[in-house]
Amino acid sequence: MKSTGLLVVAIGVLLVVVGLLVWSGALSWFGKLPGDLRYEGQHTRVYVPLVSMLLLSLALSVLAWLFRKLF
Fold first, then answer.
1. What is the pLDDT of residues 46-57, one digit of tens each?
2. What is the value of pTM for the model shown?
3. Domain span at residue 7?
4. Whether residue 36 sits in one domain with residue 23
């Protein structure tokens, strides 16, 4: 039962840290990377954040790997 409590606390701390980074503007570059596709027509706007989502996927995969190794 202690590992479940530790997991909940770790997720809470991670959410607080990410929230503070977003609030402070430290993540303003996310979504504006080279490779994120944008098209703005006269009546249409299309945005496909390819590189940003690849980076997010890589970060989450590393976190999942670390979590599996630790627990």
1. 999 999 999 999
2. 0.67
3. 1-28
4. no
